[in-house]
Amino acid sequence: MTQPNSILGRLTRSLTIVAVVGALLLLLFIGIEYRISFAELSDEAALRIVIHELTEHVIIPMLLLAIPMAVVGRWAIRRAVEPLGRAAQKIDAAGGEARGVRIESESLPLETQPFARAVNALLTRVDDAAALHEAFAADIAHELRTPLTLLSLELDRLEGAQAAQLRLDVAAMRRLIDQLMLLAQIDAEQAAHLPPAPVDLIEVAGDVVAQLAPAALANGQTIELCGEGQNVILGRRETVAAALRNLIENALRVTQQGVPVVVRADEPGELAVRDGGDGLSPERLDVLVQRLRRADHASTSGAGLGLAIVARIMAAHGGRLITDPDQRELRLIFPST
Amino acid sequence: MTRLLVIEDNERLAMLIADGLGSRGYRSDIARCLADADIALTVATFDAIVLDLGLPDGDGLHWLRARQLSGEPPALILTARGGLEDRVNGLDAGADDYLVKPFSIEELAARLRALLRRPGRRAEPVLKVGSIRYDTASRTASAIDRPLDLARREADLLELLLRRAGQVVRRQTIEEALYCFDEAVTPNALEAIVSRLRRKLDEGGADNQLHTVRGVGYLLRDGGTD
Questions:
Q1: Taking Cα atoms as reference points, which of B217, B225, B223 lies closest to residue B201?
Q2: Residue A296 has pLDDT above 50, yes or no
Q3: Which chain A residues contact residue B80 at CB under 8 A?
């Protein structure tokens, strides 16, 4: 059979067969009951009586039975397969990166539960494989830290332009390792299904700015924070801070000395970072955000996986990363609570 | 000379740390495991501990948590775990600061300087950052060896910023340290004290050391690397 089998089609066919067989049986029954012989059928008056009897006792009851049965059957089947459609939508909506998506098999019809359980088992295996993959990346990142420390300390004993360049290379590797470990952490948080907690964006921004300001000052750059009082969202503080840190570090890279990098936390549920660069077009942001998916890890600007990770953190929060090139701002938009 | 105990099982790493810190005026003893560290701490006194977390005979955090009850030297943790949770656990266990690998000797030295400036424990009575000196016993300050005439709150603020030199001190932290909890602090009061202190530092010759991080707090730094 090449055409996919529709349950509704089968039901219609079955009901038609039942109706036809039932009608024939009734016809036979009535024939015997009233001793109608074929000879009587030539008599016009008798035929009228026969037709009347048949209409009253066969056709009307059959229609009365078959039509409501068809309607109720369709309705029952529609309702029964509806949860399957919802489950499919849920799996589709989860996209490529989400973890822990499962079908709620309790809401499904009993007959489809073995199938749902099999799908869930498959999803579990997919999740496990992805987790293993990322844990492996995190392990490698972790293991690299000690040799990289040795390298960094050895470099501190050297002087000259070459050593300075090597130190920059070590710093770039360190950034990459931090980002890999951050990715592993986002996934671990998602897998753990931690309930989101209230996070004050102004307080987080203050912390991150305080962390980054000393190095920026040493480099002749300044960071400012706008926002007073409280600006509370529901989320995970640590990854929100990591997202903002990534944005500020990017902003510092494209901003010349003397121009402040401004962090705004004054809009509800929003964090924005304004830099002194040329502004990032939505198309370019899209390309940078897609990097993670395309496994395109080559970096010339030093931005690394930064924006891709920021976008992933925002997705995990049900929010968005957007760019406003006119204001030279990147914004983190959190869903309203 | 400041004496450190470096607890690190990787021989080359320990040697590089001791060597690098040696050229910056610290004398380091190396312990390869926690048992060695326990012995070292009973036979000598140290100004600070540098502790790697992954050691052959146990977890550094447990060891620290068990030891920190008595008046121990301040501890700086070296960790390969980058996550903030690990840092928080480290600080909860009694560590005074942490440094995530990989780090440079300069970073480590800067953190140790900040650690040794902290109040209590074995901190030095005279705080120095760049050309600013502050004697915590007599509460007198000088810039390039010229005495500064500071009001009480200006001196309090200077001491606070000196103890955390190189780090941003949040506004709220400063207000809590400078005022009693029942004192009403007007929004501009702190700005006024900061600007008076900055003027006095500038006049004393210690200019460009006190920075404002707008919206967050203040930061005192050496003109150089600190």
A1: B223
A2: no
A3: 142, 145-146
Closest residue in chain A to residue B217, using alpha carbons only: A210
CA distance A145 to chain B (A): 6
H-assigned helices in chain A? 7-33, 44-54, 60-93, 113-156, 161-192, 201-218, 237-254, 282-289, 306-316
Residues B55 and B38 sit within 8 Å (Cβ to Cβ): no
Identify the helix (H) or strand (E) that includes residue A321.
Answer: strand A320-324
Query: Cβ separation of A218 and B17 shorter than 8 Å?
Result: no
Please give the structure tokens belonging to residue A14.
Answer: 């079955």
**Does the distance separating the beta carbons of A170 and B213 come in below 8 Å?**
no
Maximum C-alpha span of chain B: 55
Domain with CATH 1.10.10.10 in chain B: 126-220
What separation in angstroms does the CA of B104 have from each of A167, B109, B111? 9, 9, 11
Give the strands of the sheet with B210-213, arranged side by side.
B168-170, B217-220, B210-213
Rounded to 5 degrees, φ, ψ at A207 are -60, -45
Tokens coding A286 = 């899209």
Which helix or strand (DSSP H or E) is residue A177 part of? Answer: helix A161-192
**Tokens 């390298």 -> residue:** A151
User: Nearest CA of chain A to the CA of B210: how many Å?
Assistant: 11
Would the pTM count as exceeding 0.80? no
Q: Among all residues of chain B, which has the CA nearest to that of A237?
A: B84
CATH 2.60.40, applies to A98-194: no
Angstrom distance (rounded) from CA A146 to CA B11: 12
* CATH number for the segment(s) B126-220: 1.10.10.10
Using DSSP's 3-state secondary structure scheme, residue A221 falls into coil
Superfamily of chain region A195-337: Histidine kinase-like ATPase, C-terminal domain (3.30.565.10)
Chain segment B45-84, per-residue pLDDT in tens: 898 999 988 788 888 888 888 886 566 788 898 887 655 5
State which residue of chain B sits closest to A170, comparing Cα positions. Answer: B102
pLDDT digits (tens, 9 = 90+) for B25-40: 899 999 999 999 999 9
Contact, A227 vs A264, CB < 8 A?
A: yes
List CB contacts of B128: < 8 A, sequence separation 6 or more.
B134
pLDDT confidence of residue A36: 65
Assign domain B2-117 to its CATH superfamily. Response regulator (3.40.50.2300)
Q: What is the 3-state secondary structure (H, E, C) of B87-122?
A: HHHHHHCCCCEEEECCCCHHHHHHHHHHHHHCCCCC
Closest approach of B59 to chain A, Cα-based (Å): 17
Is pLDDT above 50 for B177?
yes
ipTM (interface pTM): 0.77
User: Which secondary structure element, helix H or strand E, spans residue A244, and what is its range?
Assistant: helix A237-254
Contact A186, A312 (CB under 8 A): yes
Residue to test with chain B: of A156, A186, A244, A263, most B Cβ within 10 A = A156
